[in-house]
Amino acid sequence: MSRTLVVAEAALRELLRRRTVLVILLLMPLAFYLSRRGDHLGQSIRFVCLGLAWALSTAALFAGSAARGIEPRLRLSGYGSRHLVLGRLLALWTVGVLLSTPYFLLVLADQRDVRYGAIALIMALTVFVSVPFGLLLSAVLPRELEGTLVLLTVVGLQMVMNPAGSATRALPFWFSRELATYAVDHTDGGYLTRGLIHGLVFGVALTVLVVAAAAVRLRQRRHLRLAI
Amino acid sequence: MNHEPWLAALTGELRRHGVGPDLTGHVVAEAATHLLDSGESPLRVFGAPETYARAVVDSLGGPDVRPPRRQPGPVRLAARGITKRYRGRTVLDRVDLTVRAGQIAAVVGANGAGKSTFLRICAGLLSPDAGTVEVHGTLGYCPQDGGTAEFLSADEHFVLIGAGRGLGRAEARRTGRAEASGLAWTPPRRTQARHLSGGTRQKLNLVLARLGEPDVLLLDEPYQGFDRGTYLDFWHEVWRWRDAGKAVVVVTHLLNQLDRVDVVLDLSGERAA
User: Fold this and answer.
1) What is the 3-state secondary structure (H, E, C) of chain B?
2) Which residues of B touch A (CB under 8 A)?
3) Which residues of B touch A17 (CB under 8 A)?
4) CB-facing half-sphere around the CA of B15: CA atoms within 13 A
5) What ipTM does the predicted assembly reach?
6) Quick one: which H or E segment has residue A183?
7) Ramachandran region of residue B213, left (φ > 0), alpha (ψ -120 to 50) or beta?
8) Which parts pass through the membrane (chain A) (predicted)?
9) If you average pLDDT over every residue of chain A, what do you get?
10) Which residue has the higher pLDDT, B74 or B273?
């Protein structure tokens, strides 16, 4: 556990020192929120969550790509791939919580007659899903530009596709629409259940895939026999 | 930047000091590579041509004050039959290398001969098409570039790598700073790696490879960007590690040091171990 925490601490330090990036990350969801504030109440909430998802996934994508240079050395220095990936997940989830808290407070201050608990749940699930999603993209697509383009495509599709269609359920942030409907329109618990299950399944599946991808990439090669 | 006048002057100085044409060619080529990589002024990196030529001659012919070599110990690294192909081209063909405790092995060869590939295979970072590597002990690896985190300071690197080796924070920092002093470097407390010069970042890279005193050290041209003094310090450190019973593998094209290593693996022609 201590190795995981050391990796998390180092990753957190790295992220917090990219001040310009942090400012942009912080402002991006605000732009999404303000762009739809004059529309239907739920739209601004849905869009702020998509903004958070986009910002966090992008941060995770770039953090994952930046770590590629040092991870083989860390592996050789005695870290297991699980220490590296869990430490990074922990750091990014922490950043996600720090990033989404002001937006929850904004909704709390700016919106009336909504289910605040459900909105907190959307943001928590958004943080939970976005981080492994960005890290998985960085694992599968080592070049940042390719990963960014895929990210753009996914979030863009999330915005333009008909949310009632079954195809949108294959997208990682579909849960936010279901939960936002529950939170704003006071619909029945079916929306809450569907959204919760979707977010949890995607979050867990993406996390497992990230851990697996790191285990494969940083595995001990078969030709090397270590006798310590 | 045009380095030709400085390189021509260095060639002349080396000849004046009686250095043979082959060695002169190697030294000049090495200096040219450094200058190209670092983009810095030759006067800043190496000093005046005459001064640098004299230093080279001193390093070749100066008295050897190192303690006598001990008998090599048990085998620490044994690479057998390493073969690697890239897109149909065979880069490494059944390469063998055995390094014992208390030995330095130099891996030499032209650009593209597969030196770095071989080292990455030895480190387990790359799979060969055939062959095996046995390592008896712990491994330390210094890559040619990269291997550091841009936004972390030297002390934070020591803590990060040290934790993997089982060192506590204070011990990792103390050990890292002690290793750095061997390269005449005092790491600044807060400066992030991205603000270090190329040569200083390589010092950090080298110190990180040494943290926890691994039994086998794999060093991939770790002296990129080093100035002359640091370069000489580096070789003194390598000899010290050898004398402490470590097995050291250095990728190099600095042939003027080959008489001071124990094993030479030449990847440009005949394979030898």
Assistant:
1) CCCHHHHHHHHHHHHHCCCCHHHHHHHHHHHHHHHHHHCCCHHHHCCCHHHHHHHHHHHHHCCCCCCCCCCCCCEEEEEEEEEEEECCEEEEEEEEEEEECCCEEEEECCCCCCHHHHHHHHHCCCCCCEEEEEEECCEEEECCCCCCCCCCEHHHHHHHHHHHCCCCHHHHHHHHHHHHHCCCCCCCCCCEHHHCCHHHHHHHHHHHHHCCCCCEEEEECCCCCCCHHHHHHHHHHHHHHHHCCCEEEEECCCHHHHHHCCEEEECCCCCCC
2) 121, 123-128, 131-141, 143, 146-152, 156, 159-161, 163-166, 192, 208, 211-212
3) 151, 192
4) 8
5) 0.86
6) helix A174-185
7) left
8) 21-38, 44-64, 85-108, 114-137, 195-216
9) 91
10) B74
Q: pLDDT tens for residues B49-90? A: 888 887 887 776 644 445 556 678 899 999 999 999 988 888
The pair of structure tokens assigned to B15 is 């000849």
**Residue matched to tokens 């060619």:** B25
- Judged by a CB distance cut-off of 8 A, whether residue A74 touches chain B is yes
